């Protein structure tokens, strides 16, 4: 059957690798929080487990895993530490650009076993088209994993030599991704957030940086992929949402597990054992069911999409919308489960070092990211209700 799981050759089991790494992540969690970075030995273990190469094409030494397996691996890492899970999903999302680079350029960036690309979102900075490539100066933000990066990137509109802005296939200003060695960027060390503190999602600056045309690509034309595997029929933005959902699901899973352990041993003043309280049982059951159902639906969407993946080009707009809906539902269900566990735990959830306190902060940092916008429900629904659009990513 064309486009099925059978079309994805055997590769390392990323969920098993993430589980094996779990004890080391647990041991490093406090250091990740305190230093606001991933310790070098843990980063090395992550690379050795190939968990930053899950979405990288096999043609450049990646594992090109099934996106459902990818979701489960990210969830498992985030269950142990949200910052590590976040950095891993962002690194894998950036690796998707390899499917839109030439083979030599993709190998130059992603060939080394410790390769990792970090970048921040577009911010209006414009790159100038110059002979042989682009020149850009500007300051960018939110480059998660930047301290581990070997290469970095910027996403910019392009000003042509005549002063006009380059347009994409939809008539809008085109956004070009420009890639360069990480040493060419100045990290600003300005990451100070309530959660995901270990992601080092800091700002960076480039000055009069020249990037050759061959080291640039666009995320706006998924149908122009060079790689033919089912994984690359997904848009980069769609798989970005899958990774963000995996982090949220992992945090919520850890919070429900932490609450269950607390409830089995805690007797609130003047009450019975928490685990025997019918109101607690009802709330826990609803949170567990909501989280598990959302996760199961997202996994189902991913498996169905791979089974129907086109051999060339990209998934159509309705498929992209359905995936977006599955991702936002998973993220919102995770936030709801985390909020219930935090509230139900009472004062035990407010103490630093509890199984709930740091994860609550992490979850409410994830919830502020663009992937968690509630507006995604309406955006997806408009398409599923028949509104025509050509540029839904």
Explain this structure.
This protein has 393 residues and is of the alpha+beta class. The chain has ten helices and eight strands. It has helices spanning 14-35, 40-48, 67-80, 82-95, 103-110, 236-263, 278-307, 317-344, 357-366, 375-384; strands at 117-119, 127-130, 133-143, 151-159, 175-181, 186-187, 202-212, 216-217. Strands 1, 2, 3, 4, 5, 6, 7 and 8 form an eight-stranded mixed β-sheet that branches. A hairpin with a 2-residue loop joins strand 2 (127-130) and strand 3. Helix 8 runs antiparallel to helix 9 (357-366). The protein is globular, with a radius of gyration of 21 Å.
Give the ordered list of helices and strands: HHHHHEEEEEEEEHHHHH
Shape: globular
Outline the low-pLDDT stretches.
Answer: 1-10
The percentage of residues in β strands lies in 5-15%
Give the overall average pLDDT: 94
Helix/strand/pairing category: alpha+beta
Report the radius of gyration as a whole number of Å.
21 Å
- Number of DSSP E strands: 8
Structure annotation, total helices: 10
Instruction: Give a short account of the largest sheet.
Output: 8 strands, mixed
Helix content: 40-55%
Distance between the termini: 27 Å
Task: Furnish the topology, listing elements before pairings.
Blueprint: H1 14-35, H2 40-48, H3 67-80, H4 82-95, H5 103-110, E1 117-119, E2 127-130, E3 133-143, E4 151-159, E5 175-181, E6 186-187, E7 202-212, E8 216-217, H6 236-263, H7 278-307, H8 317-344, H9 357-366, H10 375-384
Parallel strand pairs: 1-4, 2-4
Antiparallel strand pairs: 2-3, 3-7, 4-5, 5-8, 6-7
